[in-house]
């Protein structure tokens, strides 16, 4: 009888561990949106996707998203110059950004 209860407790603990591992695996597998932004201007720009700061990108250089997850309905891409002026702002739908292969080019001003 005691051996049977220990077996049930062991199975419950094992089941809970398996469920916990599955939850961690599913939550931990979120994929970043593979957005790449190319700065074709002659100045360094500060890039935001939605409200998240992605980083600064030098002239004629590229920067990759390392913050925003894929699967959103919209992606608002903004670029600011050193004085804080908006140099670029565009809201892409998920479908639209996939059509351009997640690559955005900020043209010279």
What does it look like?
The chain has a four-stranded antiparallel beta sheet. The chain is of the alpha+beta class. 30% of the residues lie in helices and 35% in strands. β5 (74-80) and β6 (86-93) form a beta hairpin. It folds into two domains: 1-30; 36-106, Immunoglobulin-like. The model has no long low-confidence stretch (mean pLDDT 88). It has helices at 2-28, 94-99; strands at 36-39, 45-49, 52-57, 61-64, 74-80, 86-93, 103-106. It contains two helices and seven strands. The termini are far apart. The chain is elongated and about 75 Å long.
String of helices and strands: HEEEEEEHE
| Major sheet description | 4 strands, antiparallel
Alpha plus pi helix count: 2
Gross morphology is elongated
Can you tag this structure with a few keywords?
7 strands; four-stranded antiparallel beta sheet; 2 helices; Immunoglobulin-like; elongated; 2 domains; alpha+beta; 109 residues; single chain
